[in-house]
């Protein structure tokens, strides 16, 4: 019966179905697990113990990379152990190939911490499928992930990041040179037409 209903819904074209943005869906799922775990810990009278995690390939000073997660965790009243500030200095995107992230998962699985606080979703993984897998693993181990900057804000920042477009010089009527930043669409359209002043 259920299979028939799903099949008929899939082929019914007269209804509008909206698929949520995957990053929003993952953010909602992460916050639901976080709320569930915090409710469970509060019911047992426990203060959450967390590890701070940062992906730090640029080798910034640890105090800078952990400033946001530390402020977030202390603002929530969570306990942070001194030796549970974990930074990966590798540029690998797959979290399972980073020893620091694997150690954070081990701490949660062993029951030494209740969750992990990171600055943004990109610290765990910039790829949504890998990020979803890590959220599932964390939930399976009985832990949570808390982010200083939510997934949707990170996605908006990525979408509105300025394009690294080349600068093009062009001549204005009075002979003054100015430069303009072109986006990819304008650059491709201008590459097929001559620029003012005979420049190519």
Summarize the structure.
By secondary structure, the chain is α/β, with parallel strands linked by helices.
Please describe what this structure looks like.
- This protein is of the alpha/beta class.
- It is globular and about 55 Å long.
- 46% of the residues lie in helices and 18% in strands.
- Helix 2 (22-43) packs parallel to helix 7 (128-140).
- The chain is built from 9 helices and 6 strands, in the order ααβααβαβααβαββα.
How would you describe this structure in keywords?
alpha/beta; single chain; two-stranded antiparallel ribbon; globular; 200 residues; 9 helices
The run of helices and strands is: HHEHHEHEHHEHEEH
Can you count the helices? 9
Portion in strands: 15-25%
Strand count, sense and closure of the main sheet?
4 strands, parallel
Give unreliable regions as ranges: 158-200
SS content category: alpha/beta
Radius of gyration: 24 Å
Q: Helix fraction?
A: 40-55%
Q: Whole-number average pLDDT?
A: 77
Overall strand count: 6
What gross morphology would you assign? Answer: globular
N- to C-terminal distance: 66 Å
Strand order of the largest sheet: 2-1-3-4
What's the helix and strand layout?
Blueprint: H1 2-11, H2 22-43, E1 49-55, H3 62-65, H4 67-76, E2 79-88, H5 99-109, E3 115-118, H6 121-124, H7 128-140, E4 144-147, H8 151-160, E5 167-171, E6 177-181, H9 184-191
Parallel strand pairs: 1-2, 1-3, 3-4
Antiparallel strand pairs: 5-6
Helix pairs in contact: 2-7
